[in-house]
Amino acid sequence: xxxxxxxxxxxxxxxxxxxxxxxxxxxxxxxxxxxxxxxxxxxxxxxxxxxxxxxxxxxxxxxxxxxxxxxxxxxxxxxxxxxxxxxxxxxxxxxxxxxxxxxxxxxxxxxxxxxxxxxxxxxxxxxxxxxxxxxxxxxxxxxxxxxxxxxxxxxxxxxxxxxxxxxxxxxxxxxxxxxxxxxxxxxxxxxxxxxxxxxxxxxxxxxxxxxxxxxxxxxxxxxxxxxxxxxxxxxxxxxxxxxxxxxxxxxxxxxxxxxxxxxxxxxxxxxxxxxxxxxxxxxxxxxxxxxxxxxxxxxxxxxxxxxxxxxxxxxxxxxxxxxxxxxxxxxxxxxxxxxxxxxxxxxxxxxxxxxxxxxxxxxxxxxxxxxxxxxxxxxxxxxxxxxxxxxxxxxxxxxxxxxx
Length: 404
Fold this sequence. Notes:
The structure is a single chain. By secondary structure, this protein is of the alpha+beta class. The chain has helices at residues 14-17, 24-40, 49-58, 71-77, 89-105, 114-117, 125-141, 225-233, and strands at residues 219-220, 240-243, 249-253, 257-262, 268-273, 278-286, 293-299, 304-311, 316-319, 328-334, 340-345, 353-357, 363-365, 369-371, 381-382, 389-391. It has a four-stranded antiparallel sheet with strand order 2-3-4-5, with helices on one face. 38% of the residues are buried.
């Protein structure tokens, strides 16, 4: 997913890497990467997984290696914005064909890249273009279901905008090449969260999971290679960073995105990012077993804040509660037995009520005492700073559990 991201990073579209909405334009981008590789001999972006994924989002491919007639076609197909790419694969194929024929009529006098000029196939790149057109044909036209009629009297039944008159029977006598890299598939989500039933504890780790002692030597997340590499590539300065329990990963909150990066910088994952409705803002806190991350997000349409739980292994998340009657949620902190304390407040955090949620997301007002896991501040260090025991009502503030 790359952690939990599904697909081969070399051929991923920017929106797939950012876990945004996928569309046919995503497949066109992936196919354009394959076309680029066939023409040049290598994909547009190379390197380790993290470098390639970030390049797809931020860098432009080197089109100087592409025959000049094809550069506008590849530039459009590899555009970072899906809306700017070709609408259909057929549009892509037509533009490619026209570019090839245009170069043929021009007598192939346009200068070509050195890689092609110096190859044994010098002057024969039209054969490469013809081969790519065959790939376009096999992958998109002969793919099962692309030309099948779905509704009678439909004016546009195929994904290419072609009006089929009948369903053809295709019996190829050849073995088609492998399909392009798979796009992301729907991932499982954690259960729907509510506060309708008691928060009976369902521990996700043994009670009293050991944490570091007070005098133990520690490393600061901000000093790691992974954090510094990621921070240098972000548009906004990070607002928080917290170690996973094993010290192998760091959760980094940018203020518009929540990332996970390996301590050595070898890989990173975008867990969530800003949308029209919601923006992650703060408090990325790991559960004691490292399977979940609690966070706080602004709910734009309701003008309130919500707490949620992200599942790194599935690259998904769920909000604990939707804003109701002006109620916001904040200050998430895990207990040692895997429950989550959250402050529910109407306007000011000091006027709130502490709720406790179990692993299934069921919550109720907290009562009694709780053995706390490391706080958000404590997780900035590895090993974590230890938690403490907190008693409901031990302070005038309902969120007094949040800080040590």
